[in-house]
Structure prediction request, 558 residues.
Amino acid sequence: MTAASDTWTIASAADAARARALLARLTADAGVPSLDRARFLTALGVRLRRCLDAGRTELTLTARADGQLEISLTGTEPWRHTLVCPSPVAGPLPDPADLDDARLAEALLATDEDAAAVLASLEETEELVRFHLEELHQTNQGVLALHGELEAAAVAQRELLDAERAARAEAENARRLLTFLANASAALNASLDHEDILRRIPELLVPEFARQVDIWLVDDERTPPGGRAAATVTAARTGRPQHAGSHPGELPGVDDLPASALSPDRPLLCLPLGARTVQGVLTLAAPGDRFDPDTTVMLLEVARRAGIALDNARQYEQHRDVAEALQRAQLTDLPTTPGLALAARYLPATHGLNIGGDWYDAFPQPDGSVLAVIGDVTGHGLRAAVIMGQLRTALRAYAVEGNGPARILTLLHRMLRHQQPELYATCAIARFTPGAPGVVLAAAGHPPALTRGPGGEVRVLEAKPGIMLGVPVPYEYEEHIVELPVGSTLALYTDGLVERRSAGIDAGIDRLAQAMEALGAADLEDLDTAADSLLKPMLHDSEHDDDICLLLCRTTTS
Prediction:
């Protein structure tokens, strides 16, 4: 089937109406849907009116073999439109001039049917649109509700996250404070020196927990209360922690006071120090604008533990002073004996409670001989000092009865075993007899004596000592005679002189031998000078954990 084409001249509105009516009938017969037909005819009518306003126009109608109907207009505004016709357009194409008035009127009335169909379709579409709008509205309401739920869930999630972060921060802060408290407690309890503890407290707290630290000891006359903050004096008087600031601190366990005149711009926290009684007050200036409550709880515990450490140090120092006083009170004034020069030194331990166990003694016997004694009681403190005094007294009693060094040690061993079964002691006794060429020695577990000959040669007396006094076995001690020409020096000492944690006792004995060998003749002319000269190289580190006794015995011509 070939295409059919025709051209219509449109010169008036009547021509345009006939052409429109004819095309309405053709498209209706060709099965074009009413909606597409209405759209086409409306667009055609608008175009024809524009063309007529500009003059005449020609309308070309082409029915193609593939069922498409092409319509084109010529003129100032050319226009082309194609319709798909479900049914073929019957040919030949009609002439609009053949359309009489009756048929034109019928065609125009038929357009109302198309308009009605369009309106019906439009109404259906509007109803469908209303339905979809309602669905959309309900969907929007659901979306809004879901959005609200999601927002509420997000807020709850944020609150949970914030609470978790806060809990983690609190836990981390608590861990940090507990770690500091443990470290601070270890540092404070590591020393029994009162001044050392007072020095460590500011080092621990500044600058993290306090901008400035002041410690006032109530029994320290060097720091009268007149220059102290009122809160400090109140804390000392009441025994309760005080906070002084322009605003209440509201800290747990702390009373609030007005700002201090000594620190009007920075809050003060005044914490009592003392385990049983108030020994002093620790005053802290806040590191910032205020004190944190959790940190304050930790600081209260630091102050409590510092008070305990200070109280322990005070008791230790009192105990040490009593022990040292008792120890020194029982040390003997050395006798003056023809043919024998004596010098002794006693030094308490520089740290630790290692006082009260070492002693020296020298006294004449009824036969004219002189006993030089040195010893060391195990244990320290008052009990060791008391036992040392008992041993010294018993030793003198046994010596007065005419017993020799070995017999004296045997009797002391027996006494200590029965009266003090849990205490032991070491001891060395040297007996000098006028005119005798040697010295009689006996030892009970004591470090070996050293001798220096007239020519300066030094010898360690390696004779094996007996067991320590008090060891729970029967024992008889032996004596040894050591040649000691005139001008020789015998050194008796306790282990505190030669023993150090960093080295064994043998190394210390070697050092002492070297120090004796280094003594000059001028040093030995005065044994006190010689004793000081020996102690200086032996104690160059100035720190020793045990007390020290040194007894020098020098044989002379007269």
Q: What stands out?
A: The CA atoms of residues 335 and 363 lie 6 Å apart. The chain has eleven helices and 19 strands. The mean pLDDT is 86.
